[in-house]
Design a protein that fits this description.
50% of the residues lie in helices and 11% in strands. It is α/β, with parallel strands linked by helices.
Length: 333
């Protein structure tokens, strides 16, 4: 049996469920509005607050514009008006947090600001509510004080941008976050139509931005060193790595690129990658123990006797993607 793709459980259309959840959102910037859309699309009632009246006033039009685009591409199962009606813009943080199952903080990336907001949210939100930050780099322990009465329900939930199109959300508990709160957060974001990923340790940038950062660092270096132009690097990513990575991740990519799987790839290519890393002052060799750990995970997902079938599946997925991209050419505005 072929491995199950987690995305198969996630519909591009987040089918609305009977209204049983409430989300409070603090911060009506692009991520706050995007979260409001995603929760509302999943059938949640949403209250959205921003301290700036001008931002609050802009929300309905921004929400309507995004919903119009989703409807244009048949990515919503209800009318835009029905979804928008679930979002209420409120004038206070307390109103946003009242009766919420989940409060999503979407404020700027400043520890002192987040510390102040979480203290307010802990007082305003009901005891059962999860308090989550959309922080991109700051771990919860950097802005939540363990003296906060509700510190055990606080964590980071970092989304892809925008979450209604890039559904992964990184759930990053602090050392003081209770296991029950982490489990509940994962369940709630799953109910909201997102794909929660548990980050096991607090590290700056989590998974998403560490992977993105590794590519960006090398891209900048290649430009600096005169190896390639900005446009050519974007072309390699867009036409080379990106299509594969939109179907399978980096580990499965190299697992399927080399007969014998990822252990064979590491044996053949590992020294070259180690030398490239050394050029950048990075000494992170793929040790036998590390390769064995990764190989065990891949073989649990895909026994080698299914390797040929999975390669054929990958190629068919790339064909589907190529057909779709061809149909869209020339690109729409």
């Amino acid at each position: 049996m072929a491995p199950i793709d987690r995305r198969e459980a996630h519909s591009a259309h987040t089918t609305p469920q009977p209204v049983s959840r409430r989300a409070g959102i603090v911060g009506a910037g692009s991520i706050g509005v995007a979260f409001a859309l995603q929760f509302a699309r999943a059938g949640w009632r949403v209250r959205l607050f921003d301290p700036e009246a001008q931002r609050r006033a802009a929300v309905p039009a921004e929400l309507a514009a995004r919903l119009e685009d989703l409807a244009r591409f048949a990515l919503i199962d209800e009318s835009a008006a029905q979804i928008a009606a679930r979002v209420e813009v409120v004038d206070t943080l307390e109103a946003a947090a009242a009766d919420a199952d989940l409060v999503q903080e979407c404020a700027p990336e400043r520890a002192e600001l987040k510390r102040e907001l979480f203290a307010q949210l802990d007082r305003a939100a009901p005891p059962h509510a999860i308090l989550a930050s959309a922080s991109s780099f700051l771990a919860a322990s950097k802005f939540v004080d363990e003296t906060l009465p509700g510190h055990a329900r606080c964590l980071v939930a970092h989304p892809g941008n925008p979450p209604y199109l890039v559904p992964v959300v990184e759930i990053v508990p602090a050392p003081f976050t209770s296991p029950a709160a982490t489990t509940r957060a994962i369940a709630l974001y799953g109910e909201a139509g997102l794909l929660p990923v548990r980050v096991k340790k607090e590290v700056a940038g989590f998974i998403f931005n560490r992977l993105q950062g590794a590519v960006l660092r090398e891209a900048y270096c290649l430009v600096r060193d005169g190896v390639a132009s900005v446009d050519d690097i974007d072309t390699v990513m867009r036409e080379g790595l990106a299509p594969r990575w939109s179907v399978i991740g980096p580990f499965e990519t190299v697992d399927l690129n080399t007969r014998g799987g990822i252990a064979s790839h590491a044996q053949k290519m590992g020294p070259s990658y180690e030398r490239m890393g050394a050029e950048r002052g990075q000494h992170d060799p793929w040790t036998p123990e590390l390769v064995a750990q990764v190989e065990a995970a891949r073989r649990a997902a895909l026994p080698l006797d299914q390797w040929d079938a999975r390669v054929a599946w990958r190629d068919r997925q790339l064909m589907r993607l190529a057909k779709h991209r061809k149909a869209l050419a020339p690109a729409e505005d």
